[in-house]
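Internal tracking record. Fields below are filled automatically when a chain is submitted to the structure queue. Please do not edit lines marked as system-generated. If the sequence contains nonstandard residues, flag them in the REMARKS field before resubmitting.
Queue: standard
Priority: normal
Entity type: single polypeptide chain
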Amino acid sequence: MQPTTAIALPDARAADVRRVALASAIGTTIEWYDFFIYGTAAAVVFGPQFFPQVSRLAGALAAFATFGVGFVARPLGGLVMGHYGDRLGRKSVFVWSLMLMGLSTFAIGLLPNYARWGAWAPALLVALRFMQGFALGGEWGGAVLMSVEHAPRNRRGLFGSFVGLGLPAGSILSNLVFLAASIVVAPDQFAAWAWRIPFLASIVLVAVGLFVRAGLAESPVFADVLRTRAARRTPVVDLFRDEGRTVCLAAGSYLSTSALGYIVIVYFVSYATRELGLPLTTTLTLLLGSSAVFAISILACARWSDRIGRQRMMTWGAGALSVWSLVFFPLVDTKSIPLIELALCGKLFIQGAYIGPQAAVFSELFPPAIRYSGTSISLALGTILGGAVAPFIATALFSLAGNSHLITVYAVAVSLVSWVSARALQPSSVAPPSR
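SYSTEM-GENERATED OUTPUT FOLLOWS
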């Protein structure tokens, strides 16, 4: 059942709620687009572009390692932006995170490769990737709270899910741009310069996102925190002192969704093209279809969760993911296009059952004065332990075994950890009402 102790959030006018949800979805889509184009580029071009001095395997591992740097930065972004989000307001951090992400992504598109700048090229790539991760570490919490804290109590799952929609939407957009670039130009031209187009194009999307976000009002819940002088001086310190167990359980519940999501969206591109011999265009098309299923699942499961219980829906998703992980790579390894698409669609549909209600559940775990810090850090920790290392681990496990069997064991193991953690997030660990 949905915890009865969830914090009662003030209602806002329906038009305001829809506008905030739309702004969160647009901005988060742009953020994830920026994040995913890096992941796709890491899978297909960054090895030879920035690490040509090492072997093919070492170059792939190095490229995925730079991808992981973004995740290392996310807890720091969650700490810093969570602090200011709980001290100064949701909206300002909501805007600055998008600006920082956009500028760092645009700069990657201008970065010379190893042949031109030598060791400076990969060093700057790592620095810009760190900035991307720092920005995303604060983005999710701000988008979630702006959506959920404006929403009526009985529709928090639905409106919070618009933030989750940014994930498949960003994946679809990034894959479409890469697909178009790889079709329009020859493979050698794509590897030489056309891979930069998705990064440079992001500046236009960021301008649109900033325009939409700048006109929003502050969250009514945080406005009430300021009015009653309830803001904390050290919200992060208070968070770990009062809600440390909840942070760990929330992070653990997200572990499998993060790890397996990046195996699907990032590692799968490398696996399908390098190990299965599928064309890049076919691989990206498969991901586009499954990402559309992901988006539908997020909305449907979020809406359903408002009726049957949001934490219950999350737990079901985590449990089902452990079962589907057993068959995912066996289906992919058949090299049958329909079966590969079934594997991808099944995996992402199940993840939608978790992602849909996640925003509302995480928000309801923490009192308003430390909520930005709580949601951001919980997600960042789950991501760094899951998604940050997943492509790297999957690459290493395949190299060790020569097949996908060990990757399947890894996927099932992290799924079981998440299922246990989600079940442990019982009403007793939810923050008591503050209003």
